[in-house]
Structures are given as structure tokens and as C-alpha cells.
Design goal:
The protein is α+β, with helices and mostly antiparallel strands. Helix content is 26%, strand content 25%. The protein has a single domain (5-121), classed as Nuclear Transport Factor 2, Chain: A (Roll).
Length: 124
């Protein structure tokens, strides 16, 4: 069955071909948003400004200013690279000092899709 793109992390799948494929738009949107959040600026070839780079914030103090900076960066990057996605809410979880955990609630109007991405960035 054809898919919309490779499912990350890449895994061999005899059913789909060389790699497992994403079969629905909801999973594709979730993966694209997750990759935007985790990719550091300068990491993606040919698009050096792409990415929020959540790992870059891992050792920052988790005060309201840093949370505001992260939220602003997420909204800015989504507006540029995923303009069809509307960020509804960004929530930060209180965690250990070595973990940055957040939830991003978003909506894609053209698909009538409301979904949540949960990200936990740690030292691993």
C-alpha cells in the first residue's frame, strides 16, 4: 500500500517495502511537527533556519521567560514551515532539571484534525 512518507525512526518493513510508511494524514502531521520541534537550526541541509531546537533549551532555567521564548519560537517556526497548522496551546510539564517536557495542541483546519504532540527532551 502506498504511503505518504517514511515513518521515523526508519525500520525495515516487508509489507511497505524497504521502510515502514506513514499511512494517514494525522500521523504525517504529528511526525512533521515533532521533527520541526526537535530539529536544531542549522541541522537540516539546505534550510539552515528550519527547526525549533528544543535540545538547545535543555540546560536553561525553566522560568517563565524561557517558556515564553520556547513558545514564541514554536509559533514562529510553525507559521513559516507548517502554515496550515494552528497552534492552540503549549503546555510545559514540571520535571527534573535534566528534562524538558511539553505538549503542543494543534489544529489542521483542512483535515478537521485536532491532535496533541508530547515531547520529552532529555540527555539521551
Amino acid at each position: 500500500m502506498p504511503g505518504f512518507g517514511a515513518k521515523l525512526p526508519l525500520m525495515v518493513d516487508p509489507k511497505d517495502g524497504p521502510y515502514s510508511l506513514i499511512q494517514d494524514y494525522a500521523a504525517l502531521m504529528r511526525q512533521n511537527l515533532k521533527m520541526l520541534l526537535l530539529t536544531a537550526p542549522g541541522e537540516r541541509m539546505m534550510i539552515p533556519s528550519y527547526g525549533v531546537g528544543l535540545r538547545n533549551f535543555l540546560f536553561e532555567n525553566k522560568d517563565q521567560n524561557v517558556k515564553n521564548d520556547i513558545s514564541a519560537k514554536i509559533r514562529e517556526q510553525v507559521k513559516i514551515y507548517l502554515p496550515f497548522v494552528k497552534i492552540i496551546d503549549i503546555q510545559f510539564a514540571d520535571t527534573d532539571s535534566n528534562v524538558l517536557a511539553l505538549k503542543v495542541l494543534y489544529f489542521v483546519e483542512s483535515l478537521s484534525l485536532k491532535d496533541l504532540v508530547t515531547i520529552n527532551v532529555d540527555l539521551n
